[in-house]
Amino acid sequence: MKHVWMSTLNEYKDTYPWKLEIIDGSYEEEHMSPLMRLAPNLRVITSQRWDFSQYFEGFISNSGHSLDPQISISVSGAKNLGTIHTTNRNPLLSPPISTDTFPSLRYLSIGLDTPFPLEQQEIHTLLQHIGPQLHTFYFRHRLYPATLDPSLWNILPNVDNIQLPFQWAASDVPKEHPLKRVQVAAWEIPYEFNDDSAWNSALSLYCPLSPQRKLSFAMDATWKYHLFENPSFAMCIWSYFEDKNAHLEDAHGDSLSQYILFLIKAFWKQPQRTYCKTPAHE
Q1: Where are the domains of the chain?
Q2: Which domain of life is it from (predicted)?
Q3: So what's the architecture of 1-142 in CATH?
Q4: Residue 182's beta-bridge partner residues?
Q5: Cα distance from N-terminal residue to C-terminal residue, the chain
Q6: In whole angstroms, what separates CA 255 from the centre of its chain?
Q7: What is the model's pTM?
């Protein structure tokens, strides 16, 4: 695939601009660099494994020629980006993300692919400029025993969809804050905690519920994954939210009942179905 990718870029490198708007997949920086020069309409980047802020700002600032059309296109591409979903291999986050570089950014998902701990202040520094314009912010990392610094809500005053690796309370969210949806770290909880009682405790700390603020919840995994890989946790997390009359979806937007109904329909539509019959007693 790498050779096909590079061959395509080399063949069409002078035929910019491309109409490409979405990149989904992980490509190394040397593969992305020529593409960024060709895609002024780029709006969505997902599943990338590089430091997007340093990469874009470094690429733009190191241009060589102020009138180079490829450079102006790269700047335009960065300014059109509304969605970035990336995994950072560096235990340190980028410098503050510039609103000048990403004025259209509304959806930001960052995962740290490192076991090292992270100070909350690093997140505050990263978001100090870009935070007010975000509507969704997912920060995916190992779960921390630390309590969330509530000043984060002031840095993210317009976020209505969030995922955090810290313990927090719904009562800490300002009453006028637009938060509506919380993404649950369903990948992390069953591996960092051992049993049902620990899972319930973790859910209460990392997925807070409050009668004063009605929130909806969604896992960062699917029912299919948990039902087949860890059915005990699937039932535990379903019961936790069901008992508290809170809505829980999976990463595809399905409730457990919707997913089970889908399985029944999918089975029923199979052209050849095998039924288990109870053997007759002799």
Answers
A1: 1-142
A2: Eukaryota
A3: Alpha-Beta Horseshoe (3.80)
A4: 162, 217
A5: 61
A6: 19
A7: 0.75
